[in-house]
Write a structure and sequence with these properties.
Helix 1 (about 40-50) packs across helix 2. The chain is built from 2 helices and 8 strands. The strands form 2 sheets. Strands 1, 2, 3, 6, 7 and 8 form a 6-stranded mixed beta sheet that branches. A two-stranded antiparallel sheet has the order 4-5. The chain has helices at about 40-50, 100-115; strands at about 1-15, 20-25, 25-30, 55, 60-65, 70-75, 120, 130-145. It is about 20% helix and about 40% strand.
């Protein structure tokens, strides 16, 4: 499972012109399930995301997590993160989970996030979304949890 996370001052997601999710300071997480992912990978990725230290401490060093700073978490599904871009000039989405599995794992990820963190907002799975953000830094990280063999 993959997450592209961005430390933000603010972020929001619109669907058909209406805001469906919005946060102030925190993390915007674009999340993608791959074909062989299960709830185990979703849980491991969420644990990593919630404890990943990308916020400044008193000395200005990245030593605090979104939990430590009580920041918002905006979770947006984005299957294109699983794109295979190795050949040609058009991406292949073969590595991405099928829509049914992707939705199940996204819903699982969001439900677990809401149990573990106070401030969680989301986009809308499968919808055409417009994401607005003010990246803080800029600070952007790629997190990935692969299934165990």
């Amino acid at each position: 499972m993959i997450a592209l996370i961005q430390r933000v001052v603010q972020a929001r997601v619109r669907v058909e012109g209406s805001v469906v999710g919005e946060i102030g300071p925190g993390l915007l997480a674009f999340v993608c399930a791959e074909r062989s992912d299960t709830e185990r990978e979703a849980d491991a990725l969420l644990a990593k995301l919630l404890s990943y230290r990308v916020f400044a401490d008193a000395d200005g060093r990245m030593n605090r997590s979104v939990r430590d700073v009580d920041g918002g978490l905006l979770i947006v599904s984005q299957f294109t993160l699983a794109a295979d871009t190795n050949a040609g000039t058009r991406p292949s989405f073969t590595p991405a989970a099928a829509p049914e599995l992707g939705r199940r794992l996204y819903d699982h990820f969001v439900a677990r996030a809401r149990l573990a963190h106070r401030q969680v907002a989301t986009g809308e799975f499968g919808a055409m979304m417009q994401v607005e953000l003010v990246n803080d830094g800029p600070v952007t990280f790629w997190l990935q949890v692969r299934p165990r063999a």
